[in-house]
Amino acid sequence: MNSKLKSMQRLLDDVVTPESDCGHLGPNRATILEMVSHEQGRRRRTRRCLGAAAGVGFCAMLALLFIRPSPLPQETSTMLSTVQTAPSPPPPLTIREVDDKQLLELLKGTPAALMEWPDGKRTLLVMGR
Questions:
Q1: Same domain for 105 and 59
Q2: Is residue 75 part of a domain?
């Protein structure tokens, strides 16, 4: 026996009465040792199942990350033929001061209106899609 088992045996001897003494005071040594061994087995099985589940989950994550479905050959040729280059962006527009007509001209094609409140404030209303 190693020292840890010996110290555990001494502790068990101090806590539990021998079977020949009063058996009505609590569980005997054999019952306690059986309960402990069942608990250790249960914990061992739980750790083993959790480890296996973690391994399966890790493998599934790797499979999802690295295995990609390949596109069908006809889809690939269609995708290649429909790829177009994006048109170059228009040059930036620099405006210093704009009157109402110029503002509405800039928003041509967009539903917009200028509204004047009774107190003289003006509000631009633009409808977004």
A1: no
A2: no
